[in-house]
């Protein structure tokens, strides 16, 4: 519609932007307008190129609508990205349209800006959920997970170098700013369209609302999903419930952590069935059930487990194996370690902080309480002070700075597993001791991104680790593996073979009749390798030279050898501590 007077130069475009009339073009040309300056320049350009202006305007409006609808319908799990998910009617768009139509101008603008910011923040949270689901098998926790960003930065720096890590952080910040800006601008643009076409917008909103109600009531589906969507409202409600659940869980867990069947058991009544034994508790990073049962990893890993079982038998050792369900997945290894050792289900950072700040008895702490063992921790992944060592009952902790390594890092892993075990032999196991050793050893060579991977070398060549310079340079680059799912699976399998080989070869070479090894995986690898919705199961094995050690777990139903059978018992990881303490002669005293 063309108006009189000063408004004669503009007509209402269906996309919501003013488009100059032919008269306006002539007027500007007659005035000798030579270039754009502010609004006059923009109108002059539109007047000279009306078709291009109209196309650009409609394209911008279409993109704004597409972006807003994508944000409203965006799922937070990778496997839900499908066409049907984005061909629904979001109820939030209907409600927002109705509200913006009736609000006065100032309130309408404020509501549009706030709505755009809220939608942008929700989109960022959905992106975080996607990342956490891909790496950790769960969504982002608004209360607890902020601390993980520092670990993520450190991981990127270890994997990509400082410059690469800074680049990724800058890119992420730019992406967040871009999402927030685009959602606000898109909502404002669509708001102007609604106001300039109030009649049509009102009718369209009423029709869409009617259709949504009808489809919701009838349960209409399109391409396998509900056509009437309330994705955003559901996501907001889910986050609120997660926050409330987290806060309630903290209080409940604090009470649970104070309860312990072995809290008052004196040292003389703990682990009497293992007295005189050198006990090693080993964790292999990301050693999950997928390594044993899923191709292409399983063939190589299973062959290694079979070969190493035979080598153990030839050296006089026997092994039994089963499954444990880890409290974590894809990462956050310390949650798996603390769950296994404390006998409590530590599946988030709040629980971890609570239990490590207290005095709950750990499996390693039980050895220390007896006074019959010297307890040590070999922690190549720890690169700064680690006060949790006291909670775990470790007399001495060797971190990455104290193991004497002079070789290169292998991506995140500070040193090869074979070197870690060599350092353990040099610093503790190979020295004359007044007591048997109980050692907790963390093996890190199977940590993602699984490139480069060390290779096994003769033990007498390990030295100070400088021999690994050429091995590291000859390995694959992390970027060549991590982003290729097929290659990541292959290299992950090889890394598990290397870690298992290093550990079992150490026992065969340096173990004796009093050696007992308990080793397990801390969690499954990320979804890129284990697949979406994989179990949280990890293998666990006990190896011993003395037959009486394994006789005590005959009733566990575990499989002979290092490879647990598919139907072997599956226990939650927090149940192992009490079963182990009981099997080896500990008396409960709550």
From TrEMBL:
Q: Where is the composition biased (Acidic residues)?
A: 1-11
Q: Where is the composition biased (Basic and acidic residues)?
A: 34-43
Transmembrane segments annotated in the record for this chain:
55-73, 85-103, 110-128, 163-185, 206-229
Q: Which UniProt keywords apply?
A: Membrane, Transmembrane, Transmembrane helix
Residue span of region Disordered: 1-48
Q: Where is the signal peptide?
A: none
Q: Does the keyword Cell cycle apply?
A: no
InterPro entries attached here?
Alkaline_phosphatase_core_sf
Name recorded for this polypeptide:
CDP-alcohol phosphatidyltransferase
User: From which organism does this entry originate?
Assistant: Streptomyces fructofermentans
Output the lineage of the source organism. Answer: Bacteria, Bacillati, Actinomycetota, Actinomycetes, Kitasatosporales
